[in-house]
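The records we work with from here on pair a chain with its fold. These numbers are not coordinates but entries in a learned vocabulary of local backbone shapes. To see the layout at work, look at the sequence and tokens printed below:
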Amino acid sequence: MKEATETVATATEIKRAMGTLRLGEWADDLLDEIELDRRLEISLMQADKGMTMSLEEAEARIAKRFANGYDSRR
């Protein structure tokens, strides 16, 4: 079986490469997709470890934040 390797590139490097390929207008979309994939991987690992909360607990936390002005837009 082939061993997986990971290549790490900065946002600047990705934007430069996309520009070179004349795909620069999609660079931000690609970076957003990479970030979403990263967050999904973290969430799946947390779920595998049993690090989840019930829907009711999540709703209660969000309601508490709104009640305390956590997300107020003044």
